[in-house]
Design goal:
This protein is α+β, with helices and mostly antiparallel strands and 299 residues long. Helices cover 12% and strands 28% of the residues. The protein is built from 6 helices and 18 strands. Strands 1-4-5-2-3 form a 5-stranded mixed beta sheet. A 3-stranded antiparallel beta sheet has the order 6-7-18, with no helix packed on it. Strands 10-11-12 form a 3-stranded antiparallel beta sheet, covered by helices on one side. A hairpin with a 5-residue loop joins strand 15 and strand 16.
Length: 299
């Protein structure tokens, strides 16, 4: 990792990032204050407004920022108080992997917020199982791995098939990294939890329902999940009741939550998840095309 100090840049008396960066940075991606921005936005920032510029290359860039960063990353930190009206994240923002997690004393560490969220109480985005982008609507026929058929009973899929009833069997029961939205969006070692890891969270933590209007989580309803393991009982995560997306509508927002695992059900038409309501918590199997929340984990 090479850190280029502001004083070094000013020695050549350039005025903007566009003046300062070299020609070989044309395929780099840019972050400004931990938000990905388009190159044109980054390059018009005045050097006088910049605190540091860090260039990250090679395997380190891929590990920290995901596979899209294979050509390199320019990470810009602006001085305190600098506001740039046009400094907006890209709509296809691939978030930097410096996300926070909580060690609950379990086999994996759990992220503090959902994919697409920046705070624990934010709902984040909704995803079909195995898809890596949110959609306006969630139907069987617009599902990425849909092949043909018109119901869960006679549908055929193109991937993740463990019986010939649902297409040509590939015996894949866990999502590949390129189909794991937590890994694709956050990079590094982040991924979606397996069924066993969700069951572990279910069984080895205390789940306490928090009503809307609470002061602890910004008034958002959901479950506070606290470790029961000795030495970790002061640690918790919050899972907001984000509901789910089906067709073009959101359902059960504020009263229920549905969170995908990376594990396929044996029928191939469904995948494992966990669902909760105000008075009920249970393992859940959802139709693969439905839009559910994702809470990442890491080793």
């Amino acid at each position: 990792m090479l850190t280029i100090l502001l004083s070094m840049l000013l020695a050549a008396v350039p005025n903007t990032i566009d003046d300062a960066v070299q020609a070989d940075t044309v395929d780099y991606i840019f972050y400004v204050d931990d938000k990905r921005v388009d190159p044109e936005t980054a390059k018009i920032i005045k050097l006088a407004d910049i605190k540091t510029i860090t260039t990250v290359k090679g395997e380190t860039a891929v590990e920290l920022y995901g596979p899209e960063a294979r050509n390199g990353v320019i990470d810009i930190k602006t001085k305190k108080g600098v506001t740039l009206d046009n400094k907006q994240p890209l709509s296809s923002n691939k978030e930097k992997t410096a996300h926070e997690y909580v060690d609950l004393g379990l086999s994996v560490k759990w992220a503090t917020c959902n994919v697409g969220a920046e705070k624990p109480e934010e709902y984040g985005d909704y995803y079909s199982w195995g898809e890596v982008e949110p959609k306006p609507g969630y139907t069987l026929t617009n599902y990425k791995f849909y092949a043909n058929g018109n119901s869960n009973n006679d549908v055929k899929f193109s991937k993740y098939i463990n019986t010939s009833e649902y297409g040509v069997a590939d015996n894949k029961s866990q999502l590949d990294p390129e189909d794991d939205v937590a890994h694709v969006k956050w990079g590094g070692k982040w991924r979606m939890p397996t069924k066993d890891e969700i069951d572990e969270l279910h069984n080895k933590c205390s789940w306490t329902w928090v009503d809307q209007g609470n002061s602890e989580f910004g008034g958002v309803a959901g479950y506070k999940v606290t470790s029961k393991k000795s030495g970790y009982t002061d640690r918790y995560i919050f899972l907001p009741a984000a509901g789910y997306r089906d067709i073009r509508y959101s359902s059960n927002v504020g009263s229920a939550g549905y969170y995908w695992s990376s594990s396929l059900l044996f029928t191939s038409s469904y995948a494992f998840a966990i669902s909760f309501f105000t008075v009920q918590l249970k393992s859940y199997t959802g139709s693969r095309y439905m839009g559910l929340s994702v809470r990442p984990v890491c080793p």
